[in-house]
Design a protein that fits this description.
Number of strands: 5
Number of helices: 7
Low-confidence stretches: none
Order of helices and strands: HEHEHEHHEHHE
Helix content: 25-40%
Largest sheet: 3 strands, parallel
Structural class: alpha/beta
Strand content: 5-15%
Mean pLDDT: 91
């Protein structure tokens, strides 16, 4: 959602899909979920475990204004594209990590999705009917809110970068 918003603002977004079959949401519900947040992006599948894949991503990072990743903490580092690596390739890069629980802290290793965070933050306790189990909010409000705040943070970092010439790192988490 974050990169969809940036694309709606005019950014050229290249989505690098790391799995062989591409984004896991591509086949679901006749691709409607995938299309709803990827309509303004170009996509490519790259195997980041190979030298060729890392070379391709390195070239993209060198020319990019923004790098957004949404792996569990530590995964992108193992693939060789930590903030430290990306900022050496491109000191002006704005690097945004989006994860369930942030890049540090006791839950950092846990994968997460919108319904998990809805339950953990108490949102589900506010929905449904009295005397019945909690109910998930139908819309992925946590995903949308996090994406919106990440896009806002990216825009602010781009503004600061225009003034200072230096990029920054953003840590956006669904739980926050």
């Amino acid at each position: 959602y974050c990169t969809m918003l940036l694309g709606c603002m005019g950014a050229e977004v290249i989505k690098v899909e790391a799995s062989e079959g591409g984004d896991l949401f591509r086949p679901l519900l006749d691709s409607s979920i995938f299309i709803s947040v990827n309509f303004n992006k170009r996509s490519m599948t790259v195997n980041l475990r190979t030298g060729e894949g890392r070379t391709i991503l390195s070239k993209l990072v060198r020319d990019a204004d923004v790098f957004v990743e949404s792996f569990r903490p530590g995964v992108v580092e193992k693939l060789g594209f930590s903030y430290e690596v990306a900022s050496k390739l491109n000191p002006r890069i704005v690097y945004c990590s989006i994860s369930g629980f942030g890049q540090s802290g006791p839950y950092r290793e846990y994968p997460s999705y919108d319904p998990v965070i809805q339950a953990m933050c108490g949102l589900m306790m506010r929905t449904g009917e009295a005397g019945r189990p909690p109910v998930r909010v139908g819309s992925p409000v946590i995903d949308f809110g996090t994406g919106l705040l990440a896009a806002y943070g990216i825009m602010l970092c781009l503004l600061v970068r225009e003034r200072t010439g230096v990029g920054q790192r953003i840590d956006a988490s669904l739980f926050d």
